[in-house]
Amino acid sequence: MEPLHAIYHHYLNVLDIAFQPIVDIHSGTLFGAEALLRGTDTLGFESIESFFDHLYEDNTLYTFDLALREKVIKKFCTIGSHETIKLFYNLDNRLFGMSDFSKGNTSRILKRYGLDQKSMVFELSEHNEIVNIDEFTRLMSHYAHEGFCVAIDDFGIGQSGFKMLYHATPNIIKIDRFFLSNIDSDPKKKLLARNMVQLSTLMGCRVIAEGVETEAEFLVCKEIGCHLVQGYFVARPTCDCSQLRLQYADINAIALLEKRTPGDQTIVRKRCEALETVSISDSMELVIEKFKSDQELSLIPVIDKQGSPLGIVHEHRLKAIIYSQFGRSLIQNNSSNFSVLETYIEPIPVVDVTMPLKTIVKLYSLSQNAPGVLVMESSRYIGYLSAREMIEAVHERNLIRARDQNPLSRLPGNFMINEHIAHAFESGKRSVFCYFDFDHFKPFNDHYGFRNGDRVIVLFAELMHKIFLNEYFIGHIGGDDFFAGAIIKDDAMFDEFCTSVRKLIYQFGEDVREFYSAEDRERGCIVAEDREGVIREFKLLSVSAVIVYKGKKSSINSAEQLQKIFAVEKKNAKYSPEHLCLIID
Asked: What are the helix and strand counts (H, E) for the chain?
């Protein structure tokens, strides 16, 4: 390889490296850092792209890139606890065609700095035209077989992305910013991104939401199943390595809110089996001994140096080798692919323990041959969820929800109401909650009997279904108390919600009259004894409502506070001419 010309040594001295954190989307734990070049403008280039174009035209692209890799790796090693995270490095795909391209150079650099190949992630993209996709995917496979992690950058915008995914399955997919910009208000982008995440996960790839800038975008990326996140919402790139943190508090705060309301998490954790793992660096001899020592063991999860799941080794794949005449010799031969653990890894869906159970089941059901899913927390393996345990988990969840459903109104009960309120609080978005309470229900129930009282409750539940949109949550607290709520997308949605509440109050007041005798309807009240035995008049049934609007900067930060507001303000609602009290905070 030709030595660098003096001008290129000058380039290296002027250029600096910034790092942008890539974190676990569920916990804020630092997963890796992407190296980004800084200083090309100082050298007189309009952009980083034009700088690399110059190197390519000067036929020094590979030589310079190799020197740049060492500069990046050296600085990466100054990051605290760098051994536990991954270095993401962008490769210009044109360097594969350079005449001085050769293999093994990066491995030698990493060895000098005490790092292994799995610490480095090569990012490949289609910024420059890929003339020969077969050659490109062959080289991708080469890097993967050498032990490096491979990521497809800007996935979804090029013509060859899915071909690369098919021919040389990468370890990581980075969804392009185009699909994530304003994803919270663009249903089409959300659909496309969700499908990309599901496809990638089924093929055993981790998914990074790249370029996330707002909380709203972040929450949707989390909802559709992205594993990792990168962008200004987490942190901007920095040349000061001391600014990188192992934990990002804002992301972690959202995760902690989730853990306050476990939802499906408790069920998944209970059903998850903590199978003993092997490391990607372990020998095949060790793997075989594990299977031999435990006759009931059918699979072993494989993790990398950082504890992230890579896939499984299934016993049936080893049988043909173990029991063949020369199988054991092939495994013991270090020059043979049969001796490398990576040869036997099968990708299966990898899910986070905080994912909704329905998402976990869907990812599993879309996979053809997977025996289950690997479960992780903060990007670290915590266990294996088999197909059988998944079925049991769904059954357990459905049983909990069935018990929670009110048998009279068929509406969700307090468990799911509390779950909805908790989700609204943890989303950080504007939300609206409404508490309904019947007026004069006790005298009606006493006078006309509990069967008619039940019919009135059913009437109100049916009206809720008719009047409220599907995106609103409705529930039955118990007795004559009901609930409705929604996460608000815009002012128009809030206005629509309030209009629906007013319509429900009016319509119930009209329809419930049919449950009274003609005489009581004409009189406008029931004449009956009160609790002290005194004859008095009781007004006809109506319903009062308290609407609480919680803005992004609201002082209401717990379900307990919300319940206290309902308890206090329902009295004001009953005395209001329109039977409504509106609280905006």
From this structure: 22, 21
Whole-number Cα distances in Å, 360 to 253, 260, 353, 356: 23, 20, 9, 7
d(CA 197, CA 355): 13
Handedness of CA 225, 229, 232, 235 (dihedral sign): positive
Q: Tell whether 366 and 426 lie within a shared domain.
A: no
**In this predicted structure, which of 81-85, 131-135, 279-283, 521-525 has the lowest mean pLDDT?**
131-135
Q: Give the Cα separation of 231 and 34 in Å (integer).
A: 11
Alpha carbon distance 413, 500 (integer Å):
21
d(CA 520, CA 390): 56
Separation between Cα atoms, residue 226 and residue 539, nearest integer Å: 55
Domain that holds residue 150: 6-253
Residue ending a domain, choose from 253, 277, 310: 253
Those residues with Cβ within 8 angstroms of residue 451's Cβ, 6 or more apart along the chain or in another chain: none
Residues 312, 249: one domain? no
Q: What are the DSSP E strand ranges found in 249-354?
A: 278-279, 299-303, 309-314, 350-352
Q: What is the pLDDT of residue 238?
A: 96
Instruction: Give me the pLDDT at residue 140, please.
Output: 72
pLDDT score of 2 more than 80: no
Please enumerate in sequence order all residues whose Cβ is within 8 A of that of 549, keeping only pairs 6 or more positions apart, or say none.
430, 431, 432, 488, 494, 582, 583, 584, 585
| 232 or 397, greater pLDDT | 232
CATH number at residue 332: 3.10.580.10
Could you tell me the pLDDT band of residue 134, with boundaries at 50, 70 and 90?
low
What is the b/e burial string over 329-340, where b = at least 16 CB atoms within 10 angstroms of the residue's CB?
Answer: eebeeeeeebbb
**Alpha-carbon distance 399 to 376, whole Å?**
26
pTM across the whole model: 0.67
- Of 253, 279, 302, the residue that ends a domain is 253
Distance CA 36, CA 76 (A): 11
Q: What is the pLDDT of residue 385?
A: 96
Mean pLDDT of 85-105: 86
Please determine, for residue 480, whether its predicted confidence score (pLDDT) is greater than 50: yes
